[in-house]
Structure formats: structure tokens, C-alpha cells
Amino acid sequence: MSSDKNPDYVLPVNQTEWARLDEQSNGMDALLGRLLPANVKDPKKILEIGAGGGGWAINVAKAHPGAEIIAADMNPLPDRPLPSNLQYKKVNALEPFPFPAGSFDVVHARLTMCHLIDGKKVLTRLIDLLTPGGTLLIDDINWPADFSGLDNAPGIKGGLTFVITGTKAVGGDPHFGTGLKAALDASPELSSVDVQEVWAPLNGKDDGTPVATWGRLFRDTLTRAVEGAPGITTDAQKATQKEFLANMADKDLDWSYSVGFYFAVCKKKSA
């Protein structure tokens, strides 16, 4: 990020990117087997920070027609049909939130904290937005810097290096998920913290298991993100992009790399 107040976006803001984000979000919901935890019975007000194309917020609004859903993001939602109980709000997560403390029964952020300067401080501010007994849902990531399984795929190694260094260059943390549980455990406002850790192989066997299916889907959406990334301008970057896409398209290439995903479900203390 270029400053403490304005997040930089390294991916495009267009219909193609929104469709990619929808597919990725739906795949993550399929992996989890839910939109909201089963013990969240009758939420009245739900906030999503970093809503992207609005896919998760739209699905939650349809599943909970009696709830008010706010999809918050720096960029407007795409021009698409929205449920009547869903509204968009322009929000910069690095600035004070335009909501009173204790406003929401559920607060959700998916692959958002890793892109923010000092995401752990943002976590604390998200907890403040919860009602007593409210639920915080954080889904985040770890891009390992161990490329030992990529000796045969230098293009993929180069592409992943670009992802990691690019995230750091704008002030984000490509390994945010690894510290998520410790950050949440440190909060005196939470009564319970549960973090599920899932390692998804990007080139694993397609055995039909939820993790394998998610790994394949994430690989596809990652490939499309690199293919459409607007920040690739130099000859060296273009060469890395070309080799990455060629390696990803080579079905006979022997390589391995897994991405860590962290799914936190937390409860705020009751009054």
C-alpha cells in the first residue's frame, strides 16, 4: 500500500475479476460446507469487509432474508441484481469505520486481512463492531516461501515469488494466516476462538475430496489472476508471467506446492 490511508489493489477491478472472485468465494464456501456456522441461528445485521464482487454477501442475504447485510469495500459492487436486504457501503478498512461499536451480529472478512497494513490492528477494530455474543469470521491465507517442490517448474516458482513480494511491497502480509490464531487469542473481548487450518495442494490428485477440489479451483483462479494482473509491465515481469502460465498449462509437469488457508470462527463475550 502506498500510504496508511489508501490501500493499493494489485488486481483489476472489472467484470472478469469479479467473476473470478465469485467462483473462488463459492469454492471456499463449498470447502467449509456453510456460509455461516450452524450456531448462528437468527442474525439481524451482518457486515462483510472487503466484499469484492459481493458474491458471499449476496448468498448470505438470500439465505437470511430477515437480516440486513452490508457489503463494504473500497470499490462499488458490480452492476448485478442485489437482494433487497443487501446494501453496499464504501469503506476503507484503514480508516475509522462508519459504524457504531456493537452494530453487527456477524462480521466477515475473506482473504482481506493479508492485504492490509497491520491487519492485526484491523482485527481488533472488527471485534469492536460485534454485538455482545456476536460472531467474527476471518478467512485468510499463507503463501509459503518454501519452493522445494518447484525445481521442475521455475515459472511457477517465479510467479509465486511475484505474489509474495508483491503483497509485501504494498504493505500486506502473505503469511497472515499463520499468526491469525495468536492474534485472536490475544483479544480480551473474545470468549472463544476456533481456527481451522487447511493445506490445499495446487497440483494434487483430483480424488474428489473437498480439499483436492478446492486446491484445483484455487489453482485455476490464481492462474486467471496472474493472467489478468495489471501490474505486469516490465519485460522481466512479462517473461515471468509467460513462463508461469506455460508451466500451469503443462499437465505432465511434475511439481508440488500447497497453500495454507485459515478459517477462524470467534465469539465475542456476552454482556
UniProtKB/TrEMBL annotation:
The keyword Methyltransferase applies. GO terms for biological process: methylation. InterPro entries: SAM-dependent_MTases_sf. Keywords: Methyltransferase, Transferase. It comes from the Eukaryota. It holds the Pfam family Methyltransf_23. CDD domains: AdoMet_MTases. GO terms for molecular function: methyltransferase activity. PANTHER family: 2-METHOXY-6-POLYPRENYL-1,4-BENZOQUINOL METHYLASE, MITOCHONDRIAL, METHYLTRANSFERASE. This is Methyltransferase str2. It comes from Favolaschia claudopus.
